Every structure is written in C-alpha cells, then in structure tokens.
Amino acid sequence: MASLIYSEEEYIAQYGPTPNDTPVNGWDSREPDKLVKTHCCFCGVQCGIQLKVKDDKVIGFEPWEEFPVNQGKLCPKGVKRYLQNEHPDRLVDPLIRTENGYREANWDEALNQTADAVRRIQSKYGKDAFAFLGGASMTNEKAYLNGKFARVALGTANIDYNGRLCMVSAGAANKMAFGVDRAANPWSDIPNAKVIILTGTNLAECFPILTDYVWRARDNGAKIIVIDPRITPIARTADLFLPVRPGRDSALAHGLLHQLIKNDWIDERFIEDHTNGFEATRELVEKYTPSLTEKITGVPAATIAKAAEFWGLAETSMLLHARGIEHHTKGVENVLSYINLVLATGRIGKPGSGYGTITGQGNGQGGREHGQRCNQLPGGRDINDQGHRNEIAEFWGLPESELPGEGLTACEIINDIEDGKIKGLISISFNPLVSIPDSKRTRKALEKLEFFAAIDFFMSETARYADIVLAGSLQEEDEGTVTTGEGRCVRLRNSVPPAGNARRDWEIICDLADRLGKGDHFDFSNSEQIFDELTKASQGGPIDYGGMSYGKIEANMGVFWPCPTTDHPGTPRLFEGGKFFHSDGRARFHAFDYRPPAEDVDHDYPIFFTSGRVVSQYLSGTQTRRIGGLVDQYPEPLCEIHPLLAARLGVFDGEVIRVVTRRGSMSLPAQIVKSIRPDTIFIPYHWPGKKAANQLTNRALDPISKIPEFKVCACRIEKLEGKTNPKMN
Amino acid sequence: METNYEFFVDQSRCIGCQACVQACGECGTHRGTPMIHLEFVDRSASVQTAPVVCMHCEDPTCAKVCPADAIKQDDNGVVMSAAKPRCVACSNCVMACPFGVPKMKVEFELMMKCDMCYDRTSVGKKPMCATVCPSGALYYGPREYIEKHRTEQPINEFDFGGQKVKTKVNLMTAPEVKSFPFDVADFLPWEAQERDPLSLARAGVPDAADNAIWNEDVIAHPESEGTPV
Predict the structure, then answer these.
(1) Are both A376 and A478 inside the same structural domain?
(2) Which residues of B touch A27 (CB under 8 A)?
(3) Are A362 and A42 contacting, i.e. CB atoms less than 8 angstroms apart?
(4) Which of A214, A236, A614, A618 to probe by mutation at the B interface, max B CB count within 10 Å?
(5) pLDDT tens-digit map of A357-391
(6) Phi, psi angles (nearest 5°) of residue A537
(7) pLDDT tens digits for range B45-103
(8) Does 3.40.50.720 match the CATH number of domain B5-181?
(9) Do A215 and B25 touch (CB under 8 A)?
(10) Which CATH number characterizes residue A149's domain?
(11) CA A134 to CA A147: how far, in whole Å?
C-alpha cells in the first residue's frame, strides 16, 4: 500500500528540498525582540548558540561566547541552522494520503486513523508486528517518551532508533570494557594530553569545534597521531599519519599494543590493580609484529613503531575515535582493541588522560540512554535483567509480564518489514531510505508496509512513503535537554512556537497513547514534567540523572552524569582512581583476533569503497539539504579517487564514472585527490535516490552492536564514455 | 570596547570548513554576501585551504589608487569598503591590492571587501569570522594570548617588490620571521637605488672572469674589447 503517489519531481515541487537562502523577513530589519540561549540542532558537540527571535520567528543567530564548550565558535551548519525555521518546505498540517495525493487533515482525524491502524495490525498480526523507529537527534525527553510509548502504549518489543547506525559499536564496547557507556573525559582534558590518537574520526569536518581543543594540545607540545584512509583536514598537519587500509582497524590496534608490550611501555601496576583479561590479550598480540601489521593494515612498519613510541613514552594521552572504526562488522572489536591501548598504559581517569568516542548525532549520547533502544530501559537499564525489568515495570505501574522483552534493532526491523513479518511502523526523525545501507532493499521494505505513520517537520524521502504524516516540531520549537558527546546534559530552550498547525513531538506521542487507551501513563503538560519523570526513572540505574533538574542544568551550563542526588555536582571525568563500573570495579581487556570485513576486495570488485560526511551536511540531509548556503558549499556527491588509480582507469578529474558494488551502482563525478589511499574511493552519504552512497554499501551487521558496515565494502569503477560534468570542467 | 584586541590569521590551522564565509554573510551590513575569501590552494594535491581577510594596511594601496577617493580609513585604522555614492567601479583597487582582497561586485557596481565587521567591532564585539572560527585560524583578541599560547609568531610587515606594507592584521608564521617578503627580489641585498637586475650580479663579484662579463663598458659597447678593471 505504501508506494509513492507522486513522481520524484512532484514531491520536490511540493515538499522540497528547497534551498532556503534568506532569513524570513529579508536581510533588513534583523533587530531581534530577544536572543534565546540554546544549542545547535546538529552534531554531538551541541555548541551553544543564541537564536535571534522576532515576532515568534527565528531571524538569525548570534554567537554565545559564554558557553564554555565552544565559546562562540560554530561550524557552517551551526551558522546557517536558523534558516530551517520559517522554511518554505515546513510541514504545517497533518497529511493523510488519498488516491489523489496527500490532503491536509485535522489532528483528531490523523491521530484517530493512526490509532485505528495500530489496533487493526496488532490484533491481526500480534503486538510485535507494529514497530517504532526513533532518532538520536531528539531530546532526552523524547527519547524517554518514545521508549515508554512503544512498551506501554504499543506494547511492542520492536523499538529502535537511528543511533543504531551511529555509535552503538562504541556503546557496546564501552559497556564491555568499562561497565558503562559514556566518554570517559570532558573535552577540557584534550588540551592537557601530550599525545593524542585520533582514529577513524574526520574530526575537523564532523566535529569542527574540537579542532581547537586538539590544536591547543599541540600548542602545549602534544604529538598528534591520525589514523584514517584519507588525509582529512585534521590529518594535514598531524605529527604522524597512519593511512590504514579500510576494514583493518583492530589489527592496527593489536600492532600498536604489541610494540607497547615489547618495549615495556605499559603500566603493569595499573593492569594488575584495575583490570582483568590482560594475559589473553598479551598472548593475542604477540604475533602482531610491525611487519605482520604492515601486511594487514597497509601502514608502514616504521610508522607503526613510531606511533607506539609516541603513545608509549607520553605522560598523558587521549584516544578519540568516531564512526571510522565503529561502522564495521567488527565495530565492537575495533573499539575494544583500541581501548586495550588505553588500559595497558593506565592512562585513563586522570587530568589530560583518557578516552572517548565522539558521538555523531545531536543527542547521540542521551538518545541512547533512556530506553529508545530495543534492549534497554530508562537509566541505561538492561531489558533482559530481571531486576531492571522489575524496577521499571513498577515505576511505570505495569505488571512486569506486560513489559515487552528485547526487540529487533533498526536494520533488522527494516529486514523484517521486507520479509513481511512487521506490517506497521511509526517513525520519528529517522530517514532510513537515505541512511541505511542497501537502499534498494529499504525502498522495497517501505513499499510493503500495510501502515506507516511518519512524524517529522520536513517531508523526508522516507516520509514520502507514509500513509499519514504528522507534522512535528523543530528543535527550537520545544523545551528539552540533550546530552553531548562528553556526557554533559545541556538545556535546549523553546525559541518559537511550532509553525502553523504543527505540534510538539511529545504532544503527538502523548495524544496517540491516549487514543490507544494508555493516556493515564502519558499525562504530561510540558517537557519539564517528562524530564522529571525521566530523572526518577533513571535513579539507581547505571545512567543516573536522579539529581538533575532544568534549573540545575541551566545554572551550571550543563551537568555531567552520573548525578544521582540533588546535591551531587555531576561527574565530568569518569574512572578516577581506576574505579570502573563493573561490579568488581575493574576494567576489562578483550582479545578479539583480527578478522576481515564482511566483503573484501576481489578480482571482480578490486577497490575498497568507504563513505562518510562532509562539513556542510548533516546525516541524511533532511535539514541541511534545505539550507542554501550549505547546499552551495558542497552541492552533490563527488567520488574521491587517487590520481594513481584514476590514471590506471583512465579517469579524468570531473569525469562522470559509475561505481558498482554487489548491491547497486551510481554515477557521479570523479574528484581526483591525493588525499585518499590509492586502493580506496570515498563518497559522502547525505543524498537520496540516485545520489545515495547507500545504494552501494553493505548491510552486513556487527554481531554484537548490529551496526552495519558503512565504512568498507568492495566496488569497481566503470567508465561512461563521453560523459563529463560540465560543472567540473 | 576592547581597544587592545588585534586580528591574527594562521592559515596553517585552517580546516576549510567555511564557517567564516557563512558567518561573514550574516554580519549585519553584509546582507548575505560574504567578504572573506576561503579557497583550496589545490584540492587535487591537498586539503589545505587559505582564508583571506582584509589586512587593513596602515597606508592602504587600494585607497591610494582610488580615483574617486571612495575608500576611507577610520580612526582605528580599519579600511572600509568603497563608499557607494563615490565608487565608480573602476576596479583600480582590485588590481592594486597586494593581498588580492577587494572584489568588484558588478551587480552593485561597487567594490566590497572585509571591513573587519565594523558594525560589530565598533560596538565592542569581535568580527563574526573570528568569533565562529572553530580551529583558531582566525583569532581576534589580545596579543598576550597569542604570545602565551601559540608557537607561531605574528608579523604584520610585508614586502611586495620594494613596497613595504604594514598592516593592522597579523599573519602567524614561523618564529624568528619579522617581516614577510613575497618576492625573491625582496630577499636580496639591493645596493642600487633602482632595482637593476644586472646590478645584482655586478656588485661585489670577486673574480676577474665575472668582472669581464659584467663590465659596463662591455655591456654598453659589446663590440669593443673591454679590459678588466
């Protein structure tokens, strides 16, 4: 039923993406009525920003220099983010699909039809045949509410979120190694490190503000080691650059640990007093000599030895990573292997020493803490832990037997929709058609849904398949909190009311719950009440917000969890004194042998394919492809290819080439650059349809985290004779 | 207003994110048009990018060559965009600026360039680009901060083929560099008043053979047999 009703052109004409270049009242008369201190709606840094508001419209921005994390600094996305408000594409009414297209509906009608569809599908196919997909760009309040709505109102086990595509490998690995899932250090520790390893993080493009932290460390004499298949902007001036072959990260970590042990650059005392499992790890890395590691990873043995020496001899150190090592079928193993380096040298839980994953989404941290994941309950509790289940069932006033068990992860939900096992879906702030690998299959799955309701503020490419589109709220149209990549819970301020007849997301969810007969569990009249319930629900759990309140967060410009009681100041740095969160207080080494990616290069597909972000776009581009200045900066995907490979294939700069994998193919201009490994090509993933890099990527999943392997698969390049991109010539 | 604040540009720190470009357009009087320039030096070879703001020369060449007297300096030495009522869109300034900063906006028949966010700095705020720059490539603040925290040194004297230019904006460069010549000619010890290229070879040449070649008589009268002096 859920196939497209319009042509691509008709969707674009009606709902965009339309690049918005100009503030709502033009460039003149930009004197605001007020400046609202809030945060950027994009990445996990959550820069402080002031929105200029006039007549209930956001008309511009002003740097917020007092907020300590970014001190007024912003990236281009932050500068232009205000243009998503008062946008011509904004959904301002609920829409119901008819045979002739969408028609504007009233809320009662749209919500009643949605509730009817939920009941119809669940009575026919069972509770779990209706799934819920959330997002990690939403507030803590909404993440909590989504989890509660799915379990209490829908009664489905199948709730997951788009963080499944983001940092779940790191989350799982952190829990395995440290007993808790959070960056170990505040970012203010970075400038005090004497050596920094940045592995699999295009830090200057994806978290531009952190560049200043890294370079303040360099000003203090730190050595910067960057591990990446590409010379990204942060790698350009690194002390050491390790050009790792895609899909070989755990082997490189093992090679570094081998050198640390061989040269006795490890902290035996720390290992003895604060960790378990070192012996097995020592035995595992015995064979990872520099020469073997060079063979596997493509990084010269001498460079590996030098990196180990920098790391080994430093007094303080930070190891930071992002999706580059996490988006793999061994994402968890990659992360654990790098954590081994941190534990072996005992440099964690101290000023200037530690570790962190840099979360990619606006609420990448908080969005994964409060029960929006298929295996998790509020407070970071485990849905399979009987004690945890009892606590939350009691808190929510349900018999424990009614609390669903562990459900499917995001990609598995899409798989089950494709297989016809899941028939109904509500999604909010998630655009899987652009963001999940193998988009041909995602499209097929969406077409199979018997009922699909999408809550969103723009008509995303995925929402086009919806039977009912519920016009939700932009970040600046609601109160709330998010928890940043360093574990700091910060306050988002309502700047303007929702546009037109659009409603706040939590109001939509609560009204739906009411129509499903569970209104008494969702009796909230503002976001603060949801936050207060969230903090109580988290109390006593591994992720404890119990002592937080809006007032406290505002007064302190953010509070780091754990913060169990109202008089607790919060915890910027974890693991001080070598105390970890496992019940025995000790951290864990993990000895996972290197294994190749799910799809390696071969005779037919001889080139590595990898994907990632550009600085001017955010995730699936639902927001940033609608902002003119950002579109101009990097209008469409280009295929980065090294001149040696280009010469071998006879490809010229700007030539339109076809990139082919076992899943699909796409044609796009080649951008010939020396900043990428000659055996690898790169395409950024922010675009839909024929411009989607995820037509090519592999939906193979990590067995633990269920993250897909975005960062490596095999491809070949075909020439399209006579086709060139006029823009590039 | 913090009158001791200065502008420092460190191109080695630039990550090419264009936050400065996007923010410059947002500055009150710019109406969406950025005045800062940011380019890849050669994207094929490197991700190196270079931001260029107006250097705000003490004795601005753009103003000197302007036939309409359209380019003014304020009391703090900030060099303004061309004044709309005066600018004749002749592009003299565009061609004369040693740093390549002014651009002719044909659609407005007006030269526009970075004015160090006059509307912001004049009321005590930092320029927009230097406020948002996430990497510290553009910094506006006290010189003491730079001296304390950066290993690179600020310079504000430049040589352009004999023209010495002193600027309000500082460029970060290697320690020990006091002024920055752009032209090989500026690295050389000229003795003649006029920059006669042949005088370079003549002056102080020690041996007789070179003397023979460069003897002025020989050059003036190549047909005669010049004898070494």
Answers:
(1) yes
(2) 31-32
(3) yes
(4) A236
(5) 999 899 999 999 999 999 999 999 999 999 999 99
(6) -65, -30
(7) 999 999 999 999 999 999 999 999 999 999 889 999 999 999 999 999 999 999 999 99
(8) no
(9) no
(10) 3.40.50.740
(11) 9
